[in-house]
């Protein structure tokens, strides 16, 4: 969450010359995004986010992300719209890094989203899934169920140093999920990282969904399970069924869930909780010296995992059918 | 140059309630400023910079800086204008820190300013000095000539590790300046840190002067000497007399320099070069572990110091009279 690559205003002015956005009015490096460098750019024809992709995002995957955003924006979704250069390209290069410019979306993130905002988010997620149904490109989920066991193998030896007994608990969970994962549910393009800081609201309405750099093809209901984990637990770890009911019911109204998807919600929620537990654990154990980013505590996701393990039937998530 | 204090959008929305700026549309932490936290805030009634003052800026000095900006903006200068709260206060508190909001200024900084921009800057500096003549508050220059010897005392022992012979050279310079400083020249409020990154331009015109947090009372021509050091040397260290002529002549057209001020330019330039040499040397020798900020190399200011030491008369700066 920092400006990793400094672009001076003169280089930026020259860079903008390739776009039909008018002259540069101002540019400010902003502290946002998944390990990329972002500038908030004001030009004569609008306000934009310029992203320089640092190491973590693979350049050959950028066309998927950018075309997906364009596809969704074309369908009227509040997603950033990539700005093409005069020559039509969505991807450019700046300071030796792949770079792209997208429209800026107004709105503010909700740190403690209300049930009303959870419903807004559920509708938005359903609309995103529907809009992407006819998107022609695909991308494998690099952090899907197949990746979890190899990922944990890298942290297994140190896991108990974070919490005694963690290694055995995760091993058991991996085994359970491998045996019970509902591979045949409807699949499509999912956001895969739709946490509250990636959704903007204005006047209680969803005004933007951002950060598509984890988007991929996977089970649609798994994306809902990710949101359920990210939006419906309180800071003290308690599950909030009112929020979960609002989220899932609103989603269901826009993209009706099949009986099999509903039945699978508890196992999908366990998978989603495990996925974030594992990546956070991985980063937690590998904080680089002088790191600019504070790693996120994996433990709340262990608590969520335990919660979902105790859910006997999907109706406990409040989905009113 | 980072976001030291994270303010979530909900806290910011609530904070904005004390101002007459309409609802919050968006807020982005920006990587800018002198060790303060800055947010670029878009609200219904405009775009603003919100600053949370971290340790380096003393809270009791904020009224001087903010009232000075308001005073200059009232006189039509392109300086940020502090936005008063509904109760009239310019200074507020957010996340336990003093905070203030000022209007956002469009424009881009010039990394390699042309002679044309140097002239623009000279006119702007003259206008700033004129505008502040009737500003009623005062602030001692904490980095003025009286501060240089005590400041160097903190780095004296290690100075030669940066460059052999540096300690003796600075000692000699301190002695020369103490004996030759033109204390009786016209004084007033100076910016004291008007480097190219603190000036914005649009279409070759000065559109903004920012960062008033070193402003203080001192010799007016000393401020010009600071700019001469900051704007009129090339990256390879060479003095550019075309730029210096443009800067000083344009300044002189707006605030005519007295014969005594012109005559004193070489010694003022030596003082200005020493001031930045000393603060950079100080920071260079004290880089904190895991620092977010790369310290600036003091050596270019030693080269400038040597250059000014060899200037026999002010006309070498190109001032056409």
Distinctive features:
homodimer, 321 residues, alpha+beta, Phosphorylase Kinase, domain 1, Aminoglycoside 3'-phosphotransferase, Chain: A, domain 2, two-stranded antiparallel ribbon, 9 strands, globular
Q: What oligomeric state do these chains adopt?
A: homodimer
pLDDT averaged residue by residue of chain A:
93
Count of domain modules of chain A? 2
Strand content of chain A: 5-15%
What coarse outline of chain A follows from CA principal-axis ratios? globular
How much helix, percentage-wise, in residues of chain A? 40-55%
Helix count of chain A, per DSSP?
A: 10
Describe the structure.
- The structure is a homodimer of 321-residue chains.
- With 321 residues, chain A is α+β, with helices and mostly antiparallel strands.
- The first copy, chain A, folds into 2 domains: 9-103, Phosphorylase Kinase, domain 1, CATH 3.30.200.20; 115-317, Aminoglycoside phosphotransferase (APH), C-terminal lobe (Aminoglycoside 3'-phosphotransferase, Chain: A, domain 2).
- The first copy, chain A, has helices at residues 9-16, 62-74, 115-131, 145-153, 156-162, 166-180, 220-231, 241-254, 259-284, 299-309; strands at residues 24-30, 37-43, 46-52, 92-94, 97-103, 187-190, 199-202, 205-209, 216-219.
- Chain A has a 5-stranded antiparallel beta sheet with strand order 1-2-3-5-4, covered by helices on one side.
- The longest helix of chain A has 26 residues, at 259-284.
- The relative contact order of chain A is 0.13.
- The A-B interface holds A 1-3, 8-10, 12-13, 23-32, 40, 42, 104-112, 200, 202-203, 289-292 and B 1-3, 8-10, 12-13, 23-32, 40, 42, 104-112, 200, 202-203, 289-292.
